[in-house]
Amino acid sequence: MTQTFADRHIGPDDHEFARILAAIGIGSADELAAAALPAGIRDTDPAAGLPAPGTEHEVLAELAALAESNHIATSMIGLGYYDTLTPPVLVRNLLENPAWYTAYTPYQPEISQGRLEALLNFQTMVTDLTGTDVANASMLDEATAAAEAMTLLRRVNRRAPARLVVDHDLFPQTRTVLATRAEPLGIEIVEADLAGDGLPDGEFFGVIVQVPGASGRIVDWSAMIAAAHERGALVAAGADLLALTLITPPGEQGADACFGTTQRFGVPMGFGGPHAGYLAVRADYARQLPGRLVGVSKDADGARAYRLALQTREQHIRREKATSNICTAQVLLAIVAGMYACYHGANGLRSIARRVHGHATELATALGAALVHDSYFDTVLARVPGQAETVVAKAAARGVNLWRVDDDHVAVACDEATTADHVALVLDAFGIAPAEPAGTAVENRTSEFLTHPAFTRYHTETAMVRYLRALSDKDIALDRSMIPLGSCTMKLNATAEMEPITWPGFARLHPYAPAADTPGLRRVIHDLERWLAEITGYDSVSLQPNAGSQGEYAGLLAIRRYHLDRGDTRRDTCLIPSSAHGTNAASAAMAGLRVEVVKCRANGDVDLDDLRAKIADHAERLACIMITYPSTHGVYEKEVAELCALVHDAGGQVYVDGANLNALVGLARPGRFGGDVSHLNLHKTFCIPHGGGGPGVGPVAVRSHLTPYLPGDPLIPGSHAVSAAEFGSASILPITWAYIRMMGADGLRRATLTAIASANYLARRLGEYYPVLYTGDNDMVAHECILDLREITKRTGVTVDDVAKRLADYGFHAPTMSFPVAGTLMVEPTESENLEELDAFTEAMIAIRREIDRVGAGDWPAEDNPLRNAPHTAASLVREWDHPYSREVAVYPLGLAHDRPKVWPAVRRIDGAFGDRNLVCTCPPLEAYAD
């Protein structure tokens, strides 16, 4: 019998699935759906409108035809997106390597040292090039990084009026996203020609400029920055990192923050993303940085170790008071950019920059009097009165896309892929002859950069391959083990889904290229919008948000604008259950909404009595409620339809967080059981890989009355865009397209039912050893379960941290710790793990429980046992051994004969408090290597 793609994607085969069902006392898949889901929300024929499933080779052929239909013109549009030459060693050994792209966020740092080191390289690269002190581990794109820079300046300068000055030469998409973010926060944006007119009158908290500007112009901003500081304002600069290899960086000119993109460092344009943005600041503001920050600490043996510092899961702690709603990053792309810098080094990057600038100089010299700015790096602006459309059309006919600024101006951007032939084609389109290039004074940087060994050791392919392998060997990703993280859905990222994303037909498209150049990728986008609407029961979908947090934000903005357009200006209250994801509250605050918490009952369900009371208290001010379904506690709440009705009756909207959609696809649709809007996590339910903590896509789906309020084209002022490209991270959308196309409606339903069955299987097998905290009707959980260790900890002193670290000795990544309830482990097996892997995890957890019992019985001291000392490294075995358990128990807890491949953690347990007290967020100094 020929196996379908669904058979390959879903771990348990029919025989194993039957055994799983038997273990939980269920007779069939249909009986499982009836037992788990409330009858009132189950759909009779969900997702029936999807195409019939195709095989891997059929679907790859379809995608190849779509990629072929796109026209790969030579892009000289610029505006923050540039063609780049990704070193093949990075394509094969990093971007296309499951050891890198299937990893999760490094919340378990002892088994994430490889990608943490790679991210530290990224942070060091950014700080070196920008002349700042501290950079975070990446942002979502340049425009959202600019928005985060704006709110950071506001946080540290609260006493100044809520006015921001923005230079008129900022990228247009950045201006749009800034305006979207500023409006609900009550920030007034004042646009000015800062180079020509200086600072405007009045007081303001911040200033934002671009280096070089959108027009290509380079300005020395040091005098303006000094003047802004004298007037009590802070300054952030959007800076091109390649240009900063030649020109004085903004940090050295006095800027308080720098932001931008690292796209041109080896990351394809991909029609808009994903790309790693960056945000860097002076040391004074390090603790205000949003997102993730990798820091240097030490482990239990005093060895250097890396971990996430300060902001780790900040949203779950500070909720609406968090610095940002961004709880993710663009880790995979940040690592590509960082390794691009490692591979080329300072001299290599300077060489690339000089070549780029040299081509721009050839254009500028030939343009002569038509040249608008005589100080530039890669982009020249030409004045062609009334002829812009003609010039752009002539260039397009020659296979080159230029940027029409207005009727009288054309911009031409050079990049790493630009050649002398491209320059000749552009000059021909302008109707001018080449000229001998004049000298240039653009190269004025005097400070050194990228001097650390990470940027001097790996310039040969041999060295780079070995470095990448050494780093990946320090990590646990899905290519080595199941990652049973509750709420995070670490499912298979199939090779057939991943293969197309590096094809030139998808990867080399500029997001602002003419629509006629991109019919194939637009077909993928259009199909996905329809299919996701069908799967969720909504009417419209926007694929623009490039993370789940941004999908939340876009959905809440839609609700807010809907109420405002109806004249309901007082509706500013968002009800959020106490169990909700922390990003919910942070997103609500960003959208200008007041957060009111609704209590949960002892069984984890939303307390409808408290909900009724809150609705009564805030009736005229109620904007919406945000719920997660199934709940954050991993249970199908049977009163969800009643909850939605209560909010609707009070004039509010219902936001259903799609984080747990993997428990609904093919069985129930939030747009049909009461939701008005949901965001979806394509990096969870729909197989885009987590990539070590990014990339991701967070589409927002709405019912028809909210359709007019979806995010728009960022090149159109006032469009309420939430990211820099109209379709967000478009180059990875073929992953989800391929998954849905290969699974079909029946395959998607099978996947959901298998995920539910597997979670219940683990709950039944482990419930005897660790109490399952919440269950729904029929003693069922959804696609995840929460194991309660609080009584165990009270009785023995063994904590969830101890169990999580000990699992590394057994070769497993830990479940989610202490979320949504402190002292618990949330386990989600996903449908992709077969019965053998489920049983291996169960066996490890049961063995750990026996170890806990030995601690409780006094066989091992509470402060010196295999759990408290976990994880154990190979190096720890050759040191003096004075523990009351053997070396074999430490590192082969199931015995030497156990056939599971051994995972050796790179470091022992890390001292997080030390790292936060002694904040170091760049590569350790040279003397550390001498030590």
TrEMBL record:
Residue numbers bearing the N6-(pyridoxal phosphate)lysine modification: 684
Q: Which parts of the chain are coiled coil?
A: none
- Which EC numbers characterise this protein's activity in its record? 1.4.4.2
The record's catalysed reaction(s) read: N(6)-[(R)-lipoyl]-L-lysyl-[glycine-cleavage complex H protein] + glycine + H(+) = N(6)-[(R)-S(8)-aminomethyldihydrolipoyl]-L-lysyl-[glycine-cleavage complex H protein] + CO2
The transmembrane residues are none
Please report the stretch or stretches of sequence annotated as the Glycine cleavage system P-protein N-terminal domain. Answer: 7-430, 457-712
Q: Which GO terms describe its cellular component?
A: cytosol; glycine cleavage complex
Q: Which family does it belong to?
A: Belongs to the GcvP family.
Name under which the protein is recorded: Glycine dehydrogenase (decarboxylating)
Which organism does this sequence originate in? Nocardia jinanensis
